[in-house]
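__Record contents__

***
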Amino acid sequence: MSGAVFLGVDLGTQSVRAAAVDDDGPLPAVASRALHSSRWRADDGSARHEQDPAAWCAAVDAVVAEVVAGLADPAAVRGIAVDGTSGTVVALGAAGGPAGPGVMYDDARGHRHAERVRTVGAELWDRLGYRVGETWALPTLLALGPAPGYRHQTDVVTAHLVGAPTASDASTALKSGYDALDGRWPVEVFEELGLDPTTLPTVVAPGSVLGGVGAAVAGRTGLAAGTPVVAGMTDGCAAQLAAGAVAPGQWNAVLGTTLVLKGVSETLLRDPGGTVYCHRGPQGGWWWPGGASNTGATVLADLVDPSRFEALTAALDRDPVRPPVVLPLPGRGERFPFAAPDAEGLWLPDDGGAARPLCELAAAVGEEAAFAGVAEGVAFVERLAFERVAALGADVSGTRSITGGATANRWWNQRRADVLGVPLDRPDQAEPAVGMALLAQAAVAADGGDPDLVAAARAVRDAAAVETCEPRPDAALEDRYARFRAALAERGWVDP
């Protein structure tokens, strides 16, 4: 037992959270503070979403101070790492600090620049295996216009912790156009776009030590001055780490408002359809591919009050129904496991008739059958997602964990296991802040080498309560999945 403690900080959309781990796994010391956003629609209809960078730093100080105060030995903290929302950026002023608001990951002010970015960097994006999105950081930087510098959300916070400018991590820099294969900013692409590469931060691998906690933050938080500040990853990667998907073949599916799939591959996955992109992981030169679907619990919440989910699924346990085949999209468009901007939710009547709009489902089949069909449909999308990454060359034979708010419903967890045909593990602790604490722990132990995330995650898993759902064979379910897939192929959304 080393007695050392490590902190992780998660910069989410709605809050900042901090957590601590030691040799035995997560500690009960956790803290959170709310964050506030400004959201509106611009004259052209595109989304705007901003936050105050100063509020990020103040909230970080508050949660770190609370966690440190709750430790048996505050002096035992040996490192801290921070994750942030992927694609959130800030323009700097002449003095080197933020000159305006933080432009959030889902702000679309760069949408008019996205196609030009895709065209100018087409060869690079093809080599890296992804398609630049309209809300990615690189188009956003062009929309912000010339500035003395630009930084990502985590860069602002790590500079605050250290008291001086810090490097960015390769995971956070991905949506700004960082070339993770060559390990550099693509200067020639940036120059053609009119973006000065010197305005962007130096980039290091996740797990690199950025510096030590400065005296000012030490005085406010109780951390010892000089405590190592470790380069983190995006919030999605942090959650993946906490869930234990850190070795090739291991995957984590997060089911909340949407469905997000993330895993580990020994090789870079290149997706011609642009539905999957890969972060460079901290260990072994491995890649962390992932994709996000528009389906998720939102579709069920539109159908029935979430407070009634448990009652409905209890009724389905007592008296199972044959659910209709459903593609559960909440609006127009899907981005993963297939890219179809015009796709809309639909369901297939049992009589073999034509597909019908999702809005007609509940009235036609009843609430319980509609609920079961939508829940199963989300699982069908998840199965299709695994088929997609496997077709791109990913190993999907390892353990699969499930996290996210929707995993509180055990009936749905079981249905997902039945659809996927593999055991699903639901850990009781998979917070992104815990993932960052584990990264800090592994990085400090590595002392400049590759952090051993496999060992760090194993220690947490051994200490955690894990609920496993074993799959149950169901021929009728397989028939429904075949109909589901055939309907998508008929519309040209997936291969026949």
The chain has two domains: 5-236, 245-429+465-496. Residues 123 and 232 are 28 Å apart (CA to CA). The chain is about 35% helix and 25% strand.
